[in-house]
């Protein structure tokens, strides 16, 4: 790529992980049990994620990959040193809620958990890496699910507020970029994983999901208020699983369907950025007969505490049709979508659309005019290491190169405001969707397989030195 304009001087290059997909050590140093620990691999995984099958304890015959994951709990110094070697400006990670409050409703935090993250953040700063911290990346303490029903309960506001106050106070000066909830729109598609929701027979599931969503939205506003009060330097963002919907044809009904699908994703962010429920959502509740309990205080909190930036994951665009029999569905993603015949797919059926990232960036910018942060983007692929653990992952380099080009065009040609870019799974980790290890995203290969076997040794892939060059050149050497 020639004559490429660099990204803004202060652009934050880096990578992203989630506690439940990389830390392991699920029962060490006082950590409690969380919903994300109890999602096994295998045929029942999606039913459990969706809140349709109950899994409140470990059961024989299942493998739970998050229990050990890649054991970053014991390897974080070495892993962060590798991130530093690549030149990361930022590292997006998440807090395991049950390390801080093992049950979730205690009055006093677990010091060992706080100390772990303090050590981790200090290690980041040793290498000039700014932590970007997701407060809740699908984590919900199992005690809160058993006792209160997860985010369906208003009591969660008190527990989440206590978690946030503890984090903002303890890590003042160490962390200034925060995200309240990971992929908040996932609550509609993966409610147990997203909000600790398990549905009993006869429940109005839509009402429960939107009530839980309201509680998360209010909790996000409470967190934003607290963050700004405790440290005015703090910047707080919301986060969605993004990817613009294309109409399947130029039939106006298909265009309308695509618009409806986009709205269902942007609904949460509309509230977090604009500070109020959009009219289309109010009308949707009315039509469906959903009764969402909201107080005047809730609405005031939402209005007065909007986010500072909009962050999102982008893996693919999507296709919508008004005709339920319009065509084949794309595979692999929790978000159902028609297959786009103009795009290639990954080994897991995720369609590859770099221009879709530019389209999505422009759509979000046009909608909100708030600074954006791409906090997940990457290619899940099967890597075949040689006898030295080295992986020649040109397919990953090609994927990221094209997406960075599209991102560059959005910034330098379209004028969107973008704070940074953190590739997903900068080190191989457990897949959130399938629970597999063989679906790898990282610049660093981890010797572990789908059954949890392996040495856990780390090896640099070809993409490691490629991304190092990208960062050193501020996006001009691709």
TrEMBL record:
<dbReference type="InterPro" id="IPR001360">
    <property type="entry name" value="Glyco_hydro_1"/>
</dbReference>
<protein>
    <submittedName>
        <fullName>6-phospho-beta-glucosidase AscB</fullName>
        <ecNumber>3.2.1.86</ecNumber>
    </submittedName>
</protein>
<dbReference type="Pfam" id="PF00232">
    <property type="entry name" value="Glyco_hydro_1"/>
</dbReference>
<feature type="active site" description="Nucleophile">
    <location>
        <position position="376"/>
    </location>
</feature>
<dbReference type="GO" id="GO:0008706">
    <property type="term" value="F:6-phospho-beta-glucosidase activity"/>
</dbReference>
<comment type="similarity">
    <text>Belongs to the glycosyl hydrolase 1 family.</text>
</comment>
<dbReference type="InterPro" id="IPR033132">
    <property type="entry name" value="GH_1_N_CS"/>
</dbReference>
<dbReference type="GO" id="GO:0005829">
    <property type="term" value="C:cytosol"/>
</dbReference>
<keyword id="KW-0378">Hydrolase</keyword>
<dbReference type="InterPro" id="IPR017853">
    <property type="entry name" value="GH"/>
</dbReference>
<dbReference type="InterPro" id="IPR018120">
    <property type="entry name" value="Glyco_hydro_1_AS"/>
</dbReference>
<dbReference type="GO" id="GO:0016052">
    <property type="term" value="P:carbohydrate catabolic process"/>
</dbReference>
<keyword id="KW-0326">Glycosidase</keyword>
């Amino acid at each position: 790529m020639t004559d490429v304009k660099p990204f803004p001087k202060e652009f934050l290059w880096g990578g992203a992980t989630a506690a439940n997909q990389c830390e392991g050590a699920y029962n060490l140093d006082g950590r409690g049990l969380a919903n994300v620990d109890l999602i096994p691999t295998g045929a029942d995984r999606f039913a459990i994620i969706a809140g349709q099958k109950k899994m409140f304890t470990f059961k024989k015959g299942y493998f739970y990959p998050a229990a050990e994951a890649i054991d970053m709990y014991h390897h974080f110094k070495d892993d962060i040193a590798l991130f530093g070697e690549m030149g990361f400006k930022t590292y997006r990670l998440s807090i395991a809620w049950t390390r801080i409050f093992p049950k979730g409703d205690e009055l006093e935090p677990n010091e060992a958990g706080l100390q772990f993250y303090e050590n981790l953040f200090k290690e980041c700063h040793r290498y000039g890496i700014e932590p970007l911290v997701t407060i809740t990346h699908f984590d919900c303490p199992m005690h809160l699910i058993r006792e209160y029903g997860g985010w369906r309960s208003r009591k969660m506001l008190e527990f989440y507020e206590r978690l946030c106050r503890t984090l903002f106070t303890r890590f003042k000066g160490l962390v200034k970029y925060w995200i309240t909830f990971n992929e908040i729109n996932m609550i509609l598609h993966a409610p147990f994983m997203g909000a600790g929701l398990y549905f009993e027979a006869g429940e109005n599931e839509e009402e429960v999901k939107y009530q839980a969503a309201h509680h998360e939205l209010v909790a996000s506003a409470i967190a934003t208020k607290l963050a700004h009060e405790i440290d005015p330097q703090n910047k707080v963002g919301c986060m969605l699983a993004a990817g613009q919907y294309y109409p399947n044809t130029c039939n106006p009904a298909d265009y309308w369907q695509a618009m409806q699908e986009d709205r269902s994703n942007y609904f949460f962010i509309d509230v977090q950025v604009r500070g109020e429920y959009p009219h289309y959502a109010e009308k949707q509740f009315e039509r469906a007969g959903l009764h969402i309990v909201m107080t005047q205080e809730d609405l005031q909190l939402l209005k007065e505490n909007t986010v500072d930036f909009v962050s999102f994951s982008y893996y693919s665009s999507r296709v919508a049709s008004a005709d339920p029999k319009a065509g084949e569905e794309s595979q692999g993603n929790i978000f159902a979508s028609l297959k786009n015949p103009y795009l290639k797919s990954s080994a897991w059926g995720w369609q590859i659309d770099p221009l879709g990232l530019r389209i999505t960036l422009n759509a979000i910018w046009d909608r909100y005019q708030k600074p954006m942060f791409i906090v997940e983007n990457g290619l899940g692929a099967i890597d075949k290491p040689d006898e030295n653990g080295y992986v020649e992952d040109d397919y990953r380099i090609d994927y990221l190169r094209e997406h960075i080009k599209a991102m560059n065009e959005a910034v330098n040609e379209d004028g969107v405001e973008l704070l940074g870019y953190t590739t997903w799974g900068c080190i191989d980790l457990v897949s959130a969707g399938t629970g597999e290890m063989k679906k790898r995203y990282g610049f660093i290969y981890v010797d572990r397989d789908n059954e949890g076997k392996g040495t856990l040794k780390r090896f640099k892939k070809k993409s490691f030195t490629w991304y190092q060059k990208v960062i050193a050149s501020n996006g001009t050497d691709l």
